[in-house]
Design brief:
Blueprint (H helix, E strand, L loop, with lengths): L18 H21 L4 H14 L5 H6 L1 H18 L2 H38 L2 H15 L4 H10 L5 H32 L6 H30 L5 H20 L6 H14 L1 H14 L1 H13 L8 H28 L4 H6 L9 H15 L3 H32 L9 H7 L2 H4 L7 E2 L4 H10 L4 E5 L5 E6 H7 L3 H4 L4 H4 L6 E2 L5 H10 L4 E5 L6 E6 H20 L7
Helix pairs in contact: 1-2, 1-13, 2-13, 4-8, 4-10, 4-11, 4-13, 5-6, 5-8, 5-14, 6-8, 6-16, 7-8, 7-17, 8-9, 8-16, 9-10, 9-11, 10-11, 10-12, 11-12, 14-17, 16-17
Amino acid sequence: MFDVQLLASGGGDTSYLNPILLFGIMILGGTFFSRLFQKFHIPQVVGCIIIGIVLRQVHFIDDTMIHKLHPFTMFALGIIGFMIGGELRAGVFKKYGKQFFMILFSQGFGAFLLVFIGTSAFGMFLFDEIGISLAMGLLFGAIASATAPAATVNVLWEFKTRGPLTAAILAIVALDDALALLLYRGAATGAQALVGTGKGSVLAATGLLFGELLGAIVLGSLAGLLLFFLLKFVRADDKVLGFSVASLLIVVGVSLIPEVDPILPAMTFGIVIANLSPRQSKNTFSLIERFSPPLYTAFFVLAGAHMQFGLLSWQMLVMIAVYLVLRALGKVIGSWYGAKKTKAPKSVQNYLGICLLPQAGVAIGLAILASQQFSDLNPEYSQMIIMVVMTGTFVMEVLGPMMVKIGVKRAGEVGLNITEEDLIKSYDIKDVMDAEPVTIKQDVPLQEILDVFSKTDYVYYPVIDNDSKIVGMITVAGIKEMFANQDVAGWLLAMDVAGPVKDKVLPTQRLGDVLEHMNQYHLESVAVVQDEGDKLIGMLNARRVMRKISAEVLHRRQQADGLHLPAF
């Protein structure tokens, strides 16, 4: 059990809260601020980061607590990687594979080269040592290539985007960390050689790098196969969620043993399960998505808590500006070049670069590793790497999501990833009811009723009087019972065989409320009547409505995906 410690008073020393209580404060504050910022049309992740800065300043969080919560941070990154992997289905790569990889390398190397050149040049001005400056430039360049999938994808989910730009963003941020790790390993090897701290050969370091990447892919693939096997035997949501979270925890936990970043194995895990079981995995990802919001909130609050503004000097501020400006230029120019070369849609060419600016967990992790290379050589160099990347990460976590929002909004993709739930919430009864139902007059004989049955495929038929007021309901099952007595069947009228009207609704009622009511009382159809009186104006059949809504969702998604067709 954790020791419960109250906030200490005086002395300016950092105080501790037990992690459970701190989690509650982080999620409560993050949720409140994210909702507040959302009302002002600012991405909610910004509110989480700001509350994290506040908690750091009032000593609710310090470096020790951040270290204690490191496993949680890794789990949150694992969920992010898993959810991104779920978006990378085989059909996407078949259609866009060559295009995505060209853009991936051009934007990644664009940021790497510009930041390497700029920070190396400024480093020479500061330190007057070519080796140190080039080494630091290599590390800054490699870290600059990383993009924060969490902040970027969070904005896409928040604004329900869909289209070619969204598809490109998801693919790039999913693969960008793997590229950043590859670049970092190469840069770290070069930096060690430049400052004289290298251990082993370049070949050995390269082999270790590829071994880590291969191990991550194998781990994620095995977890995907395991979950695929388990899901064959369970259908209940609680069991599916339990197996999915357990598998993801194992992936993240195993990756932490050799201290490998969990995003790549978790992403591989998501890709495998999404492609092995395309239909059932949709429910799996939906459950994880509903489970994860508090974890995302706490993750971004912790990201904000990494900031320590008191350590900034003017040299660091200049280096931060160089890093931020050149990284942004590298991403924008590189994305544009790659998209142009592959003849991607104009929306991808024009706006992809500004959607790849956020940085977070991976960049911070790489910065910590990079600083360790210089800690024995010179603590000043180590501190500069940490503060430049951390401050740059904070700035991009605040401005980056806003740029993502601007990009997808100008591309016209906001709100296109519509769901059935979204449509249900937006509709009134009058929007989806059958405004011309097949009705039966109350004095119609049984034989004519049977003729109506033979020409239509309804199950429920409202019976109306001469004023079009509903007086009963005939069902196919009810008519069958009438034939049990052949003696009276010949002279029965509609009013004789009609059952009671179980429920009536108004056209202005919300569809979601009515469907919930129908489900609660097991009603398949209800009559829609005018505000005054019982004059029938339509019928609402739950199954027909859901088929209509599903078709509309498919149509809208096809329209969104079809935005790219003219460009290819």
